[in-house]
């Protein structure tokens, strides 16, 4: 890849030379000295002063983080916490050399040497001469005028010394001693830009929703009487506005103002972009020209009310994002940036916080064009830059980013990393004077009328929302491992949506910061519990919260859980867009039949479908969707409804059962067979046999102790049923024939009130049980044992394909799903999703594929959870939450999951809101299960399907 990249880069430079040698461009010309991204790099000479591959000249790819090229030592920013006060970060320096030439016709131009990002202190020499002050700060674009230091059409040598840690302690405090991986190196591109001596250095735009347009144009060496002309161009490449101004003596800044009628406005829902083409000329001759994209939009903070864009209150459905790729650290490419924006919008989010530093420009461009509200953040992780160090960094950040319409706030540091002296500096370079916020973690630190306090629980959030300030939480529901993120989110989102001062918030975080350790055989390292904080894995593998967030944040809000008995095609809907009428979206209904167990594929077969025309439902209003279903719709298994946004992206797809669980099993669970059930009794056991299948029950404790069939002989499923909560003591059993079936009634004292086994001539086994609990329990139901290492995978009709928790059951629509066994522990290697082990919801049937053959479990009763094997949600001294006994459990209630931080580190999730309360159980619970411990039989092989019509205990007297 590197050789190919070098060849491509050389060809590009040859093409550049051919172009520049034959024309005098009025546009900026760029010559890359490095590569452009992590996939296209250039080889430079390199010397590392410490750690791996240090003490000698060799080569390195630029741009890169030098640790990922095999140099130096790895540091996580909180290592000083882990290893104590005596810990010292690796004081590494990287010395870079690179030779290059520039064309002779650049001699009459102004040449800037530009670094897009270098970690951390960067000293630059060109042809043996210093080009300027050492730059301090990692994440910012900086440049030097090197016009008088270049050899034109001759060799030039660039010499760059990069210190991993800064000589300025405040820079280290703000961005190095942080909760993320610390790297060294030139991690973003380096290039030369050539412009005419009279040129525009940069522009700052303020384009309001009313069509007013203002622009500061910063000039270099402009002659008196020069003309600055701006042309506003729409997305059809039509000039819709023009304004010009003539320069006076010594002008370094001119301001242009105009307005256009009825501009298409920029919002996250309507990312309409314009371009402005700005030229500098004199006497009719253009000397310089540049073009920049922007959007018309107005941002307001209406104190004690809300955040407004274009006069409309908005609420943030956001997430925090690090710039990251496992193989290359903070050196990424535009495809990664684009994919991240698509993934964020794919969760129906509308906002992103650039934590904790400004991102690559390509990311911001995709936020502009696809539509995300952005918080662009000055670094400051719990400690701030000094005024001396921070002042130039604010300028560098704002000058680079100020024209992106997606940026609606500047964030001055994180969690106490706020230098108040810098708050006023942002507006010096941002003509639109966006609001500045402080992303903090302590109450009482509201700034500009917005409280951003981190990691409040549901009930403290209610108190903040009832107080004075707008509440826009910049970090909440910390998503370490499988906790946080979507767990409890529905309650938080409803709270913000329905509160006047609720402005939404930003989940921590988008992805697990797993780095490929070049010093550890390329193993991916998330630094223990420090960095597996994502809704996505390091390579953007989707965890269970991803689809749950997608449903919770769907702007087409549908809360219907099941079709009512008198369903007439009406589905209530709420519009949770801020700007879009629901009649701008499109909708499609489908009538589907689910595939059955056996050799058929997972999924469903579509029978009929149709489009839906939505009525006018304005933002924040409620209404109904009317489905014009055919007369035979009840003959299908389920109804699906998909909603698409105005750009034809699917928002979400909901599925509801049409048939009952009993009806869905009617063609699967069979009762008839060629012969009656045989019963064989010994002193210690009772064995029932039918159609080549045998089950053995212990007369000592009533548990299933043996299984066999004609194909695989012995099966290891057994040691149950056992109540997972409550007390039960076996007191005896009685058995008898009931018509063609054979029944075993087990008696208990305690909380198990009734339990009955019934075997049918077909070989199907029915288990009916009733238990009574009164109190609070993490889970309820029954459990069995089975060796996990025997299991190849599972196929099931139910919610999926991801596992659930009590407070995270969204995003798992009803379908036939299939998953192979894996050992994924969320947030650590291997990142294979969906996880296999976990709680699965709304299961109608599940077919286990094992080394001993297949066996099937089914239930006609609603709301069955199936637990598969041992797993946990949160790592720690004691993994949480605790699990039921056994290996495969059939549950009526499951626990919620907490998050990383203090109020739920012990899995006390109550503070996360109503859905996160523990299970309060009062009264009797009944459930029927069916088991088939043989190879699956296709329904067409037996036409005598006779599902039991009632699932009640059989009394010996009535049979």
Automatic annotation (TrEMBL):
Domain Glycoside hydrolase family 2 catalytic: 300-520
Assembly description: Monomer.
Protein name as it appears in the record: Beta-galactosidase
Top EC group: hydrolase
Gene Ontology molecular-function annotations: beta-galactosidase activity; carbohydrate binding
Gene Ontology CC terms, in alphabetical order: beta-galactosidase complex
Assigned keywords, A-Z: Calcium, Glycosidase, Hydrolase, Signal
GO biological process: lactose catabolic process
Cofactor or coenzyme needed: Ca(2+)
Signal sequence segment: 1-23
Residue ranges occupied by any Glycoside hydrolase family 2 immunoglobulin-like beta-sandwich domain in the UniProt entry: 199-297
The protein's Enzyme Commission number: 3.2.1.23
Residues of the Glycosyl hydrolases family 2 sugar binding domain: 59-196
Pfam families: Glyco_hydro_2, Glyco_hydro_2_C, Glyco_hydro_2_N
Catalytic reactions of this protein: Hydrolysis of terminal non-reducing beta-D-galactose residues in beta-D-galactosides
Family annotation (Gene3D superfamilies): 2.70.98.10, Galactose-binding domain-like, Glycosidases, Immunoglobulins
Classification via InterPro entries: Bact_Beta-galactosidase (IPR050347), Beta-gal/glucu_dom_sf (IPR036156), Gal_mutarotase_sf_dom (IPR011013), Galactose-bd-like_sf (IPR008979), GH (IPR017853), GH-type_carb-bd (IPR014718), Glyco_hydro_2 (IPR006101), Glyco_hydro_2_cat (IPR006103)
